[in-house]
Design brief:
With 152 residues, the chain is mostly helical. The protein is 57% helix and 0% strand. Helix 1 crosses helix 4, helix 2 crosses helix 4 and helix 4 packs antiparallel against helix 5.
Length: 152
Amino acid sequence: MTTGPRWLAIPLVAIGGTILVTWPLVRCLGVCLGRPPDTLVSLYFLHWVAHALTTPGVRVLDAPMFAPYRDTLRLGEFLPAYAPLALPVIRFTGNPVAAHNVVLLVEYAATALGVTLLAKRLVGATGPALVAGIAFAFSPRDRLDTLDLPRR
């Protein structure tokens, strides 16, 4: 088990790497949004799920995007696993853009942290495990195209 400063380095590197790679997202959390259309669809799904979960009598899958049809939320990737993270942000701030961006930041940091811990368990050394976590989480080939933020 890793103890002391080395243990603390793992989440700090994950968070620091996330901030660095996604800059300026932390600075403009409630207003910055990547280019449409994917970000707008994700934002719609997050906001609808939060609304449906907090409004009595509203069915989560009956989003109004193709009304009057039922279960229209199944026509897209509404990612219900993001709701526990997005819902408190939307309730606290009233801003679904901030919730979308918090989900994005947590996704990057959790990926770096998770892969680092897995590699540490497999390899047994913190340094190489940290390199593996960083390489996987922040790989421009596969991950950074989801960000596509306007630069300010």
